[in-house]
Amino acid sequence: MSTMPGGLHALSDIMEKLYRRSLDHGIPPIDFEDGLILASLTFLLCAQRGYVRVVDLGAGIGFSALFLAYGMSFGCRGELVAVEYMDLRFEELRANTATLSKIAGSTVRVTATHMEGLEYLSKLEDESLDILFVDVEKNLYPEVLRMSRRKLRGGGIAIFHNAIAPRPPDEFFEIARREFKSLIIPSRAGLLVAYRS
């Protein structure tokens, strides 16, 4: 059970605050429905595994990481790494890690990393990730997806925001069909879920 002080009401207030702060920074945050899908997928994978490593590429100030942390909060053990390369966004993300840690609970280590997403992913050991959430420049999606094939453990998932709008390059969808079991969840912006078997 989540150890967040104040329960769901407090969580809702934090979500609203980070949503508004994201807009203040000029960051188009994920929709709440996409966030709830993220939390649900994270929860399900956590329930199946003893230890889960989750990475949020293009984390902004931590709004999407908030949903990942919530999905991990129900007895999950593991780590959540939020990666952001823009300086001002990263400074606020780093300040928000204490809040993300409270949401995730004491058995999840939450860290913020100041780095470009592809560079971070390239430095990870192969087969070390369980969940990768991606919300970077859409022209990078094909390379991130291609690289995530090596970085995910068997049964791991990569979740890409904006699978519908703004649409990523066609190559991205070709890789998803060829190298993964994949599904587009038809929310307003769309989430592509790529499962590594």
**Globular, elongated, flat, extended or rod-shaped: what is the shape?**
globular
Tally of alpha and pi helices: 7
Low-pLDDT runs of 5+ residues are: none
Task: Tell me the strand order in the biggest sheet.
Answer: 3-2-1-4-5-7-6
CATH architect. name: 3-Layer(aba) Sandwich
- Main structural class: alpha/beta
Please tell me how large the radius of gyration is.
15 Å
Order of helices and strands: HHEHEHEHEHEHEE
Task: Look at the structure and give the CATH class.
Answer: Alpha Beta
Structure notes:
This protein is an alpha/beta fold and about 200 residues long. It has one domain (about 5-195): 3-Layer(aba) Sandwich (Rossmann fold). The protein is built from 7 helices and 7 strands, in the order H-H-E-H-E-H-E-H-E-H-E-H-E-E. The chain has helices spanning about 5-25, 30-50, 65-70, 85-105, 115-125, 140-150, 170-180, and strands spanning about 50-55, 80-85, 110-115, 130-135, 150-160, 180-185, 190-195. Strands 3-2-1-4-5-7-6 form a 7-stranded mixed β-sheet, with helices on both faces. It is globular. The protein starts with 6 loop residues before the first helix and ends with a strand. The model has no long low-confidence stretch (mean pLDDT about 95).
